[in-house]
Specification:
4 helices; Nuclear Transport Factor 2, Chain: A; 190 residues
């Protein structure tokens, strides 16, 4: 009888442990906490890239860590200079973004994995249909992976990788918008 009680206690402990583990995502967070953090990051990114709201450049820059190293990989280069990375965002907005007419940033897919109470990774695919200054249809787009770290109450980017959509050949049919890379997300050659 004593052997059965021990076996039942072990089974009960195993079931209890499994039930507890299923309610957590391996990071020590509950599923509810992970969902809340993922939603917070998603909302923060979407708000920063809302092209209809004012101060777009400042909102984009506000996603990056205000201090410390930031690592960014794009177009076959890796940058670790915070000033160069922020300069690339400014360059994109001033040279490309602010010249788009009627742009709409469309998030095709966004996945946020919460790794711990202070770390998360977002991978997103997006495209930006708009008109050029000459009124021609045009589309920019790509994929973006960003590592976020919680600093105080804010989630900020400490590392990222940007992949542009492959360039599409121009067509004579104006009903098809051309796709281009995100030229402003990399600094011009110096």
């Amino acid at each position: 009888m004593r052997g059965r009680v021990c076996a039942l206690l072990l089974v009960f402990a195993g079931v209890l442990g499994l039930a507890t583990a299923c309610g957590r995502n391996g990071s020590g967070l509950s599923s509810r906490d992970s969902t809340r953090i993922a939603a917070e990051i998603e909302q923060r990114v979407k708000a920063a890239y809302d092209l209809k709201a004012p101060d777009v450049e400042q909102r984009m820059l506000g996603l990056y860590a205000p201090t410390g190293r930031i690592v960014s990989a794009a177009s076959g280069t890796v940058m670790t200079s915070r000033d160069t990375i922020l300069g690339g965002v400014r360059y994109f907005w001033r040279q490309v973004g602010s010249n788009m007419r009627d742009p709409k940033w469309i998030w095709d897919k966004m996945v946020v994995d919460v790794l711990s109470p202070n770390a998360a990774v977002m991978t997103a695919a997006y495209h930006i249909p708009h008109l050029t200054p000459r009124g021609e249809p045009h589309v920019l787009g790509g994929a973006w992976t960003a590592v976020f770290e919680r600093r105080g109450k804010d989630w900020v980017i400490v590392q990222e990788h940007l992949s542009d959509l492959p360039q599409q050949p121009a067509t004579s049919d104006s009903s098809h918008a051309a796709h281009d890379s995100m030229p402003g997300m990399k600094m011009p050659m110096q």
